[in-house]
Amino acid sequence: MAQISNISHQLQLKCTGEQFYEFYRNKMDRLTQMFPKKLLGYKIVEGNGFAHGSVIHWKYKLGCILEAKQKLHMDDKNKAITLEFIEGDLFKEYEMIAVKGEVSDGGSNGISSVKWSVEYVKANEDVDPPHNYLQFALELAKGVDAYLCNNN
């Protein structure tokens, strides 16, 4: 069995953790309007909108135009969202890949953050870790954070 690897980065938020998680929980459909050069479109394949268990077909730009289907997993108790890739162009390089965001509400210091991580299994040893997918998630998160600070 292939080994699951993980890369991650913690991002400090200017908005509250609750605001940030609620955006991804309830307003993820706005991402294509906010990032039209990165997220070119989506279609709900299974499920009712951007809800737990839904399957979404994305068209996105990561150097070149790519497509993928993702299954959405939401954990409200832990303020975590996982986008599990189930089909798409990236399976040429990875046997398995999932992007996860875990939001913390700041605790004693009052500073909220989100930890984005990418779990993956390489199709072969010559494949680089998917730093581009982690960077993509971080860029979207920074944009969402700025949007929430300016619109609340």
TrEMBL record:
Identify the PANTHER family for this entry.
POLYKETIDE CYCLASE/DEHYDRASE AND LIPID TRANSPORT SUPERFAMILY PROTEIN (PTHR31338), POLYKETIDE CYCLASE_DEHYDRASE AND LIPID TRANSPORT SUPERFAMILY PROTEIN (PTHR31338:SF16)
SMART domains registered for this protein in UniProt: Bet_v_1
Protein name (database record): Kirola-like
Q: Which family does it belong to?
A: Belongs to the MLP family.
Q: Which SUPFAM superfamilies match?
A: Bet v1-like
An example GO BP is:
defense response
Top-rank taxon of the source lineage equals Eukaryota
Q: Which InterPro entries match?
A: Bet_v_I/MLP, MLP-like, START-like_dom_sf
The segment(s) forming the Bet v I/Major latex protein domain are 2-151
